[in-house]
Amino acid sequence: YDTHYYSMYLGGIANCFNSMEQPDSAMPYIQEALKIAYIRKDSADISLQLSEMGDTYLTMKQNEIARVFFRQSMSFTKKTHSFLFWYKAGLAHNLNGISQSFFDDSQYDSSLVYAKQALIYALPDYTTEAEDSYELMYKTFDKENKKDSSNKYFRLAAEIKDSLFSDEKSRNIQTQKFQ
Questions:
Q1: Does residue 23 have a cis peptide bond before it, meaning omega lies within 30 degrees of 0?
Q2: Are 92 and 118 in contact (CB under 8 A)?
Q3: What are 15-70's pLDDT values in tens digits?
Q4: What is the pLDDT of residues 23-36, one digit of tens each?
């Protein structure tokens, strides 16, 4: 079997468990996926699996460990010769993960710094990552009782969410027309 795809499937399973807030179930899958990526010496796969490992620890609320994996992922991302798409999207995702970890630890200044950095990589092409950045920013400003800034970034996050929803609805309508 192709170990690349097997690793990707394992990472996808871990992602599903993380999305369902079941990081303990995700852990063996992501560990195996990361092991395979290291055996293959594929920097892009290693970066992706390290990022998912960071997401797993973030879901477990082990924020310091999560930050280590996100930073390692960024290091491997910078070593890859991947498409600009994967490079920018990967960095934005990892920076948002670090931002979320600082937010969860009530370190709001650090959270803002990383969310703003993520936004640099996310805009204009990676709207879901930009939405995450804006959401982290408005929540952080809200915690700091900076209502004007909180409202500004809430509106920006809502605009992206509305845009993504509209795009999805358009695709659904187009799909139904062709059936």
A1: no
A2: yes
A3: 999 999 999 999 999 999 999 999 999 888 899 999 999 999 999 999 999 999 99
A4: 999 999 999 999 99
Spacing of C-alpha 22 from chain mean position: 17
Give the count of beta carbons closer than 10 Å to the beta carbon of residue 10: 23
What does the alpha-carbon distance between residue 44 and residue 179 come to, in Å, rounded to a whole number?
37
Cβ atoms within 10 Å, residue 163: 12
Helical H segments across the chain, by residue range: 3-19, 23-40, 43-59, 63-79, 84-104, 108-122, 127-143, 147-178
What is the spatial distance between Cα 18 and Cα 22, in angstroms, rounded to a whole number?
A: 5
Contact between residue 153 and residue 112 where contact means Cβ atoms under 8 Å apart: no
* The pLDDT of residue 170 is above 70: no
CB of 52 closer than 8 Å to CB of 33:
yes
**What is d(CA 106, CA 126) in angstroms, rounded to the nearest whole number?**
27
pLDDT for the residue numbered 123: 84
Instruction: Please report the pLDDT score of residue 164 as a whole number.
Output: 65
Q: Quick check: 98 and 128 in contact, CB under 8 A?
A: no
List CB contacts of 50: < 8 A, sequence separation 6 or more.
34, 69, 70, 72, 73, 76
Report which residue type is found at 172. N
Task: Residue 141: name the closest of 156, 126, 127 by CA.
Answer: 156
